[in-house]
């Protein structure tokens, strides 16, 4: 449990059976240059893999246990905020981690502007033996912070659906908030997309938000065809319902040729051609099936969504793949 001290930043992390990744997450917090001003608020949904016992060793961590049946991406985070001592709240997840010691300090500097209510960074795939080389982060330029604010709600509302969506790529894998902003504008009670919906509501309300992609956390899942199919369908459904348009997530035939080209360019194992080919095919199939369902009727789309995506799928870690003797060529 946290000892009483001056807390400036509360880090909120939903956890369930996170032992595969919690150690590197905690190490990423321990290297922060402002560690003395930080608390980590773990919202645990019934872990039984030793996660709770592991977390007990860290005085800057406090664990709040909830009934797994009550977990909800929006409502659970709202509850977590009530447990936070910090003036600022940093949202992330149990399998994201950083090696950047100044990450939180750099994000915090944006709040020197009293009108800034939130700062969002970028999740990336690190170059490691246990990650997909086609997804490795390969920056081409140095990003600059982008400040977004509209003079009134009408200015934002009058934008086209795609334009609105462009400003709402918010991400609770790496986002910092002024706590008062979350208290005044809590997350919606949804199973997916609470972060993007918050950004939309914040811009309508006139909040100033910042996208600063100099701030990054590592985050990765092996995305199998079934995972990709369901995840793509969920994303399409969410965007359609929340922003009113169908995002083009189709995969042109040229993309499959590019997979072969990139594999040769990066000089990686040929198994990644099959892995990525199947993943792209699953994404394209989800896009086609989504449009077919919507073409029948919106009611039909709702039924198909309920059938296909009753549960948001979770990606699998490479460690679990090895433990189950996963063979890529048999996918």
Characterise the protein shown here.
The protein is α/β, with parallel strands linked by helices. Helices cover 42% and strands 16% of the residues. The protein folds into 2 domains: 9-219, Alpha-Beta Complex (Spore Coat Polysaccharide Biosynthesis Protein SpsA, Chain A), CATH 3.90.550; 225-330. The chain contains 13 helices and 9 strands. α9 packs parallel to α11 (271-296). Its EC number is 2.4.1.-. GO terms for molecular function: hexosyltransferase activity. This is Rhamnosyltransferase.
CATH topology of the largest domain: Spore Coat Polysaccharide Biosynthesis Protein SpsA, Chain A
Give, in order, the helices and strands: EHEHEHEEHEEHHEHHEHHHHH
Count of β-strands: 9
Proportion in β-strands: 15-25%
What does the average pLDDT come to? 92
Helical/strand content category: alpha/beta
- The CATH homologous superfamily name of the largest domain equals Spore Coat Polysaccharide Biosynthesis Protein SpsA, Chain A
Question: In a few lines, what is going on in this structure?
Answer:
Keywords: Glycosyltransferase, Transferase. The chain has helices at residues 19-30, 51-55, 73-82, 103-108, 153-157, 161-166, 179-184, 194-205, 225-243, 253-266, 271-296, 298-308, 318-323, and strands at residues 9-15, 38-44, 61-65, 88-91, 96-97, 116-124, 146-148, 175-178, 208-219.
Index terms:
single chain, 331 residues, alpha/beta, Spore Coat Polysaccharide Biosynthesis Protein SpsA, Chain A, 2 domains, 13 helices, 9 strands, Rhamnosyltransferase
């Amino acid at each position: 449990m946290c000892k009483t001290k001056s807390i400036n930043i509360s880090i909120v992390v939903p956890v369930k059976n996170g032992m595969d990744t919690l150690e590197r997450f905690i190490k990423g917090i321990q290297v922060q240059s402002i560690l003395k001003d930080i608390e980590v608020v773990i919202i645990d949904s019934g872990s039984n893999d030793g996660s709770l016992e592991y977390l007990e060793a860290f005085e800057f961590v406090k664990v709040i246990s909830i009934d797994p049946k009550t977990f909800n991406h929006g409502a659970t985070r709202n509850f977590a905020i009530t447990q936070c001592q910090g003036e600022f709240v940093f949202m992330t997840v149990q399998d994201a981690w950083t090696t950047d010691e100044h990450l939180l300090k750099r994000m915090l500097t944006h709040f020197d502007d009293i009108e800034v209510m939130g700062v969002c960074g970028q999740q990336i795939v690190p170059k490691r033996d246990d990650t997909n080389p086609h997804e490795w982060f390969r920056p081409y330029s140095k990003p600059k912070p982008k400040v977004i604010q509209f003079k009134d709600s009408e200015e934002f509302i009058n934008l086209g659906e795609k334009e609105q969506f462009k400003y709402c790529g918010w991400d609770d894998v790496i986002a910092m908030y002024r706590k008062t902003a979350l208290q005044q504008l809590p997350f919606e009670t949804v199973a997916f997309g609470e972060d993007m919906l918050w950004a939309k509501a914040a811009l309508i309300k006139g909040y100033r938000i910042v996208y600063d992609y100099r701030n990054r956390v590592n985050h990765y899942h092996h995305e199998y065809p079934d995972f990709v199919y369901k995840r793509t369908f969920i994303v399409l459904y969410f965007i359609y319902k929340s922003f009113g348009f169908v995002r083009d997530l189709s995969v042109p035939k040229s993309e499959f040729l590019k997979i072969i080209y990139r594999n040769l360019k990066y000089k990686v194992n040929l198994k990644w051609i099959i892995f990525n080919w199947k993943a792209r095919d699953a994404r394209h199939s989800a896009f086609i099936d989504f449009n077919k369902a919507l073409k029948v009727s919106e009611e039909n789309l709702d039924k198909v969504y309920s059938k296909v995506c009753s549960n948001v799928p979770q990606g699998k870690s490479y460690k679990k793949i090895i433990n189950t003797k996963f063979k890529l060529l048999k996918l």
